[in-house]
C-alpha cells in the first residue's frame, strides 16, 4: 500500500464516503492511508449505521453488531495509521460464544474450548463427537478458500467467478449450510447448533450457501470478543483515526443524489441543495437503496427497478432494547433461544413471509462483560427476533407492542423471571425502522440475501457496474453482511480503487470543495 505525502490536504484527490457504518468507516481509513482527502457523510446525528448507539435512562444500548470476530481486520485499520488498537480499545473474550437454549430448557454452551465442546456433544449424541471433528475439518477447508483467499477479492467479471468454480464445487458450495451440517452431524438438535450462524448475517440456513460454514472455524481460530464500552467504542475509535488522517465526518448530512459527469461519479448533491465535488464516491448505503434512490435512473442498466424488485432480500428484525432495575446474573452475554420449530419458522420468515406466533430469539446481555453499560445493580439487554421484511404486509404500528409484550412474557417464563416488573427503560427497532431510519430496502436488515445465486459476482459489485468511480462497501455488496464481511468489503477497495497518486498523474481531478 502506498501513502501519498502532500504539502496541502487540498492537493490530495477527494473521496466522499456515503454512510458511516463499519464498512464506510473502514473504507475511509483505507482511503486516507492511500493518500486521499476523505469526507464521510452521515445523515443521522452520530456515526455507526446499524452500529448506532442508543443512550437513555443511564443505559447504553448498542444498536446492531454485538458479535465481534476476526479482530485482526479491525487491528489492521489502526496499524494503517501507525497505531495499536489495543492502546485505545479494550477487547474482552466472551465465553461461551453463545448459550443455545432449546425450547424444552436444555442448554448447549457453544465455545472455543475443544474438550468442553466434545463433552457437550457427547451428552447429546456420542457418535457425533467424531462427526463434529470431521465437520470442523471441512469448515477449515472452506475457511481457507472462502475467507483467506476470496473475502477481499473483487468479483468484477464472470471470469473471476469461473476461476473459483472448481474449488467451490470441491468444497460443496452448492449445498446449503444446513445440508452440509446434516451430512456430518446426525442429532437434530446439534444440527441446529451448528447451522444457525447464517441468521447472524441475514441468511436462512436452509437456503444460504454452505460457504458460510466457515464461520465455525473462524470462531474457533480467533474467538468471539466484545469491546469494553460497547461496539460504539469501535465506531468512535475509527472516527478518531479518520480525523487523525485529516479526514472529516459530517453528521446530519443527507445525500439526495450522486452527480455524474461523463459517465463517472463526480460528487453528490445533498438534500440541503449543497453540491460536493469528489474524485471518487464510496457508498456504504444499502445497495438497493443506493441504486433505487441515489443513482439517476438513466445510468442504471443492470440494477433497474425491476431487477431490484426481483432480487431476494434478507429477513428483517424486531429488536427490543431494554434495561432492568435488577441484574440477571445467570444470563450469558449471548443467548440463542430456539423456539419449538426450526425449519418451519424459517420458511414462514423467508419464504411465506408471514409473522408467526412462535419465534426464536437472540438475547444480548452486554453487562455480563461490561457492567458500566447500565446503572449500578441494573442490566442492559437487547432481544432480537428474526421477522419477515416488509413484503409480508405486517402492520407494525398495530403489532409492535403486542409482539414486544409476547417476547417479554416468553423471557419471563423461561430465563428472566419477573421481567415484566423489572423493565425501566425501553426502545424498539422494527422493520419500519430499518426502512425509515436505516434506509434498508423493504426493511431488510442485512440487504441482499446470501444465497449462492446472489454471492460473489452475482452480488452488487464493489466497483459499480453502472458508473465509473462509484464503489460499494457494506452488507449489500461482496462478500456480505456481518462485521468481518463489511470490513472485508472495504479491503476489496484496495484492489479496485486507483491510488491517489495515479489520479494526480492522470490529471483527472475534481475541484477541491
List the helices and strands and how they pair.
Layout: E1 14-18, H1 22-33, E2 37-41, E3 53-56, E4 59-62, H2 72-80, E5 91-93, E6 98-101, E7 107-110, H3 114-124, H4 128-146, H5 158-170, H6 177-184, H7 188-193, H8 214-222, E8 225-227, H9 232-244, E9 248-250, E10 255-261, E11 264-270, E12 275-277, E13 280-283, H10 287-294, H11 305-310, E14 316-324, E15 334-337, H12 343-352, E16 361-364, E17 379-387, H13 396-414, E18 423-429, H14 431-436, E19 470-472, H15 483-496, H16 500-506
Parallel strand pairs: 1-2, 1-13, 2-9, 6-15, 13-19
Antiparallel strand pairs: 3-4, 5-8, 6-7, 10-11, 11-12, 14-17, 14-18, 15-16, 16-17
Helix pairs in contact: 1-9, 1-15, 4-8
Organism: Enhygromyxa salina
Pathway: Carotenoid biosynthesis
GO molecular function: FAD binding; oxidoreductase activity, acting on the CH-CH group of donors
Mind explaining what this structure looks like?
This protein has helices at residues 22-33, 72-80, 114-124, 128-146, 158-170, 177-184, 188-193, 214-222, 232-244, 287-294, 305-310, 343-352, 396-414, 431-436, 483-496, 500-506, and strands at residues 14-18, 37-41, 53-56, 59-62, 91-93, 98-101, 107-110, 225-227, 248-250, 255-261, 264-270, 275-277, 280-283, 316-324, 334-337, 361-364, 379-387, 423-429, 470-472. The longest helix is centred in the first third of the chain and has 19 residues, at 128-146. The strands form five sheets. It has a seven-stranded mixed sheet with strand order 7-6-15-16-17-14-18. A five-stranded parallel sheet has the order 9-2-1-13-19, covered by helices on one side. It folds into three domains: 14-90 and 227-311 and 447-508, FAD/NAD(P)-binding domain (3-Layer(bba) Sandwich), CATH 3.50.50; 117-221, Orthogonal Bundle (Guanine Nucleotide Dissociation Inhibitor, domain 1); 313-438, Guanine Nucleotide Dissociation Inhibitor, domain 2 (2-Layer Sandwich), CATH 3.30.519. The chain is globular. Helix 1 packs parallel to helix 15 (483-496) and helix 4 (128-146) packs across helix 8. Helices cover 33% and strands 18% of the residues. With 513 residues, the protein is an alpha/beta fold. The protein has 16 helices and 19 strands. Strand 1 (14-18), helix 1 and strand 2 (37-41) form a beta-alpha-beta unit.
Amino acid at each position: 500500500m502506498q501513502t501519498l505525502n502532500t504539502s496541502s490536504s487540498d492537493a490530495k484527490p477527494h473521496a466522499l464516503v456515503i454512510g458511516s457504518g463499519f464498512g464506510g468507516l473502514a473504507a475511509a481509513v483505507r482511503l486516507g492511508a492511500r493518500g486521499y482527502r476523505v469526507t464521510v457523510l452521515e445523515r443521522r446525528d452520530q456515526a455507526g449505521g446499524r452500529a448506532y448507539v442508543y443512550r437513555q435512562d443511564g443505559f447504553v444500548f448498542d444498536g446492531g453488531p454485538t458479535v465481534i470476530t476476526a479482530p485482526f481486520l479491525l487491528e489492521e485499520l489502526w496499524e494503517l495509521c501507525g497505531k495499536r488498537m489495543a492502546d485505545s480499545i479494550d477487547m474482552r473474550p466472551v465465553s461461551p460464544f453463545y448459550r443455545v437454549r432449546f425450547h424444552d430448557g436444555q442448554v448447549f454452551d457453544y465455545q472455543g474450548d475443544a474438550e468442553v465442546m466434545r463433552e457437550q456433544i457427547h451428552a447429546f449424541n456420542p457418535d457425533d463427537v467424531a462427526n463434529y471433528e470431521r465437520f470442523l475439518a471441512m469448515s477449515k477447508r472452506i475457511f481457507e478458500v472462502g475467507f483467506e483467499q476470496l473475502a477481499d477479492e473483487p468479483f468484477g467479471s464472470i471470469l473471476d467467478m469461473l476461476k473459483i468454480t472448481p474449488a467451490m464445487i470441491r468444497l460443496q458450495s452448492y449445498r446449503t449450510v444446513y445440508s452440509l451440517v446434516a451430512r456430518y452431524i446426525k442429532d437434530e438438535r446439534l444440527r441446529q447448533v451448528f447451522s444457525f450462524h447464517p441468521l447472524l448475517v441475514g441468511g436462512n440456513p436452509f437456503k444460504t450457501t454452505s460457504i458460510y460454514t466457515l464461520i465455525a472455524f473462524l470462531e474457533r481460530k480467533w474467538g468471539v470478543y466484545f469491546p469494553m464500552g460497547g461496539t460504539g467504542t469501535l465506531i468512535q475509535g475509527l472516527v478518531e483515526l479518520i480525523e487523525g488522517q485529516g479526514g472529516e465526518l459530517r453528521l446530519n448530512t443527507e445525500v439526495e443524489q450522486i452527480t455524474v459527469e461523463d459517465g463517472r461519479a463526480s460528487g453528490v448533491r445533498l438534500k440541503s441543495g449543497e453540491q460536493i465535488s469528489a474524485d471518487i464516491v464510496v457508498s456504504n448505503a444499502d445497495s438497493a437503496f443506493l441504486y433505487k434512490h441515489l443513482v439517476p435512473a438513466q445510468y442504471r442498466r443492470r440494477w433497474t427497478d425491476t431487477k431490484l424488485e426481483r432480487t431476494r432480500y434478507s429477513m428483517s428484525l424486531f429488536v427490543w432494547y431494554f434495561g432492568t432495575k435488577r441484574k440477571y446474573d445467570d444470563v450469558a452475554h449471548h443467548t440463542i433461544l430456539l423456539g419449538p420449530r426450526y425449519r418451519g419458522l424459517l420458511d414462514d420468515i423467508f419464504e411465506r413471509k408471514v409473522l408467526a406466533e412462535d419465534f426464536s430469539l437472540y438475547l444480548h446481555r452486554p453487562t455480563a462483560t461490561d457492567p458500566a453499560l447500565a446503572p449500578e445493580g441494573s442490566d442492559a439487554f437487547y432481544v432480537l427476533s428474526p421477522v419477515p421484511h416488509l413484503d409480508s404486509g405486517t402492520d407494525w404500528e398495530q403489532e409492535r407492542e403486542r409482539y414486544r409484550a409476547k417476547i417479554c412474557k416468553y423471557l419471563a417464563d423461561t430465563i428472566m423471571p419477573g421481567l415484566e416488573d423489572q423493565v425501566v427503560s425501553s426502545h424498539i427497532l422494527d422493520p419500519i425502522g430499518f426502512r425509515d431510519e436505516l434506509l434498508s430496502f423493504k426493511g431488510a436488515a442485512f440487504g441482499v440475501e446470501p444465497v449462492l445465486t446472489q454471492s460473489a459476482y452475482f452480488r452488487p459489485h464493489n466497483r459499480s457496474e453502472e458508473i465509473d468511480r462509484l464503489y460499494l462497501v457494506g452488507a449489500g455488496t461482496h462478500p456480505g453482511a456481518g462485521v468481518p464481511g463489511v470490513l472485508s468489503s472495504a479491503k476489496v477497495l484496495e484492489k479496485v480503487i486507483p491510488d491517489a497518486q495515479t489520479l494526480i498523474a492522470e490529471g483527472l481531478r475534481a475541484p477541491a470543495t
